[in-house]
């Protein structure tokens, strides 16, 4: 196509003026992008509405995003939009390119120090798993079908709170619902057409009232979220002892600010505002993703009873009724396989975040200019029938070898790859393992109807299952 050729970009579907290819996504985005990759090649250009080079091939992703990681560390952010809606490019997910390295290095170091797998977080995960199971046993007594969402949300929310602020809340603390509500409003608001075009046509802001104030509403939701974060940071700061080990991310950050001040160093990006945004990002990136993955998992358990029985058999034989710990991953290969298969089949991120090249680079034989938006589209690899036979079919056995061992498939990368891969992977893996194994250890999940309901999905911040009910029966 001429326009791509002139820009020195790989071919791709023909874009429309202004809209680019945005109206051409006619099935889930991971599937559309896979279809285009088969037609135009594994490296192709999509206009969304600006040109973006998509990589939808496992090997090329490895050769570029992983092996040449430094070229792909920057994010391609909607700068105008962020300035207007969220006071600029702060936080951990879409931080400004000049600050990501420092902030990411600090976050990685600090999360390691707090210990994603620290006994305290793991102990909390175990006790929340027990608490959730106890709630379900009550709610679902006498075979009453229940919606599992609310209790999953409390468990996941509490763990993020502990990681960010070092505080445990009451299981159903109303503040958790408040944060969830505000963040949800924010993400729903982001899909408003006015907001989508804000980056290209900032003047749209002046027409806000004509469209029912979508921009103002977003700003309010963001301010409300930030106010909650600041209130929590005040509480953390009051009980922080600078001479002790940090209890949480906020502690580490406050300690770093003090260290810089004492040494007379520039505090630079280590500001209270940046900290509040980073804690908000832990929620935005870590809450919905984990809850949604767990909701998919329980839908699969209900729909594939044989897989559920195999998980239970493995747990009954190797663990019995004692509490499951992360150490047990080694002796539960079928459960490990089931969790990987949940993440592959659910594919909650239909489309990944875009990066920005910081120099000219060759990707899959195409010479790509500096400052080009790049989409490391690993989700399309997960649904490629040339790699995974009948990709929509949930089949943990794909990941088990003849000796009954779990075999990790490097082509499954739900936490992405390279320098901007998920920062919360350790916590997320811990939650998925402890929660799911504890759930099937204690309960059996079955369909309220003879034929399990079809898995229909809705698109929000992530792809998630439509609300569904499930029968939960206690195993002991
Ligand atoms: C099952 C759960 C989760 C999944 C599937 C998931 C997946 C992802 C993906 C695909 C990305 C984008 C990577 C890219 O841009 O290429 C990401 C980024 C991120 N995730 Fe997660 N995530 C999960 C849970 C969490 C949790 C629990 C936290 C933290 C508490 C978290 C924090 C982050 C952060 C801060 C980023 C931005 C990293 C950066 O841009 O440098 N995530 N995650």
Automatic annotation (TrEMBL):
SUPFAM superfamilies tied to this protein? Cytochrome P450 (SSF48264)
GO CC field: cytoplasm
**Required co-factor?**
heme
Q: Which UniProt keywords apply?
A: Heme, Iron, Metal-binding, Monooxygenase, Oxidoreductase, Signal
Is Heme included in the keywords of this UniProt record?
yes
Q: Which PANTHER family match?
A: CYTOCHROME P450 508A4-RELATED, CYTOCHROME P450 CYP36A1-RELATED
Name of the protein described by the UniProt record:
Cytochrome P450
């Amino acid at each position: 196509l001429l326009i791509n050729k002139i820009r020195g970009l790989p071919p791709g579907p023909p874009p429309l003026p202004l809209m680019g290819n945005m109206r051409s996504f006619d099935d889930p985005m991971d599937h559309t992008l896979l279809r285009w990759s088969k037609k135009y090649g594994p490296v192709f250009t999509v206009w969304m509405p600006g040109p973006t080079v998509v990589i939808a091939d496992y090997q090329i992703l490895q050769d570029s995003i992983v092996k040449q990681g430094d070229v792909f560390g920057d994010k391609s952010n909607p700068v105008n939009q962020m300035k207007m809606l969220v006071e600029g490019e702060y936080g951990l997910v879409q931080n400004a390119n000049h600050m990501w390295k420092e902030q990411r290095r600090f976050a990685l170091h600090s999360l390691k120090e707090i210990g994603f797998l620290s006994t305290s977080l793991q102990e909390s995960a175990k006790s929340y798993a027990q608490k959730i199971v106890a709630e379900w046993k009550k709610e679902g007594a006498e075979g009453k079908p229940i919606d599992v969402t609310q209790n999953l949300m409390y468990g996941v929310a509490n763990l993020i709170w502990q990681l960010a602020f070092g505080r445990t809340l009451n299981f159903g603390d109303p503040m958790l619902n408040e944060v969830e509500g505000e963040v949800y409003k924010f993400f729903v608001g982001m899909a408003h057409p006015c907001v989508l075009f804000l980056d290209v046509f900032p003047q749209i802001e002046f027409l806000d009232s004509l469209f029912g104030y979508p921009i103002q509403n977003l700003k309010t939701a963001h301010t409300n979220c930030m106010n909650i974060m600041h209130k929590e940071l005040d509480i953390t700061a009051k009980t922080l002892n600078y001479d002790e080990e940090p209890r949480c991310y906020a502690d580490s950050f406050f300690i770093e600010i003090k260290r810089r001040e004492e040494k007379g160093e520039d505090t630079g990006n280590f500001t209270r505002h940046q900290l509040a945004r980073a804690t908000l990002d832990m929620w935005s990136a870590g809450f919905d993703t984990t809850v949604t993955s767990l909701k998919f998992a329980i839908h699969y358990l209900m729909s594939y009873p044989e897989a559920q029985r195999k998980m239970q058999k493995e747990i009954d034989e190797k663990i019995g009724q004692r509490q499951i710990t992360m150490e047990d991953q080694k002796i539960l290969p079928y459960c490990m396989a089931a969790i990987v298969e949940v993440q592959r089949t659910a594919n909650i991120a239909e489309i990944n975040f875009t990066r920005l090249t910081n120099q000219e680079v060759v990707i899959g034989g195409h010479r790509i200019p500096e400052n080009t938006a790049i989409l490391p589209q690993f989700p399309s690899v997960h649904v490629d029938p040339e790699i995974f036979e009948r990709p929509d079919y949930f089949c943990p056995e794909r990941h088990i070898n003849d000796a009954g061992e779990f075999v990790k498939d490097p082509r499954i990368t739900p936490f992405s790859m390279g320098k901007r891969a998920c920062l919360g992977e350790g916590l997320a893996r811990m939650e998925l393992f402890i929660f799911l194994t504890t759930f099937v250890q204690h309960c059996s999940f079955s369909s309220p109807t003879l034929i399990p309901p079809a898995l229909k999905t809705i698109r929000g911040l992530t792809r998630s299952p439509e609300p569904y009910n499930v029968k939960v029966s206690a195993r002991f």
